[in-house]
Amino acid sequence: MALAPDTRARDVRPPRLRHSVMEFGRVVLEMGSSAMLAPVLRTLPRGDGHTIMTIPGFMGADGSTSRLRKFLSGRGYKAIPWGLGRNGAEVRPASLDEFLEHRFQTENLIAEKLEAEFLATGRKVSLVGWSLGGLYSVALAHRFPQWVRQVITLGTPYGDPRGTSIYNLMGRVYDDKVAVDEASLARWVAYTYSGGELRVPVLALYSESDGIVGAGIARCEGDPRYVTNMAVMASHVGFPFNPLVFAVIANHLVEPHERWALCKSDYIRPFVRLVDARGG
Q: Does the global pTM surpass 0.85?
């Protein structure tokens, strides 16, 4: 399969140190802010009952997205976990290309679940992927549009992984540092968009104060006819716990004509921003 052209963002600066240091403290605040946004959450459009699968980030398991699923179930959706254990816990790659093969095989396992759910319900499945889970989700949308209704990603590192704060740390997780070069980095980034023509809507949520993923690599660079990038106020770890993020997700899951004007709301407008492909 031919890979798409190199789409790496040029800005590969990792997050600012102060954002990284504040990550876990911010999560506590995000988890406790539901009461402040309760008036907004109550007015969001109800779901239509279709299935939504949540996919955790690197080294995350289904427990990390359970609060998000509980919210989605409360809005009228069938929210299901990915059910594949801890994301990436079993892989010890010697190269970025080996990790890429792991991505491909993991997507195949997810695709089996998507097909089974589609056959059981007769309806396509929406995917909500956090961080690395977002890369799986967008790749699946390219590869299997017959089973994917839409994709929402949370703090996903679409660009050069050197733009994350944990790039060097990840090398120490393994016995030997993962071997990388410019060509393998290009393949890693291009792979997400390489599985076929995109025909599925993608909403990429990212944060300019993310302490793990730099803003320069956090925008989805897929077909702009289908991709929407939106900056929101969130920490990286807090994405699946943040009620502001929940509001944006619930609003985007419904048909366009049913969506609430989030960006015009006094509650929401200061904390969200639509972003074009150039970051403006």
A: yes
Q: What is the pLDDT of residues 155-185, one digit of tens each?
A: 999 999 888 887 755 554 444 455 568 898 8
Average pLDDT over the chain reads 86
Could you tell me which residues come within 8 angstroms of residue 53 by beta carbon, excluding any fewer than 6 positions away?
79, 80, 81, 82, 110, 113, 114, 117, 125, 126, 127, 128
- Taking alpha carbons only, the member of 88, 113, 260, 54 closest to residue 173 is 88
* Domains of the chain as residue ranges with CATH: 17-275 (3.40.50.1820)
What are φ and ψ of residue 55, in 5° steps?
-125, 120
Residues 6+ apart with CB under 8 A from 82: 53, 54, 55, 56, 62, 110, 113, 133
Q: What is the pLDDT of residue 8?
A: 43
Considering only CA atoms, which of 13, 32, 17, 12 is closest in space to residue 238? 32
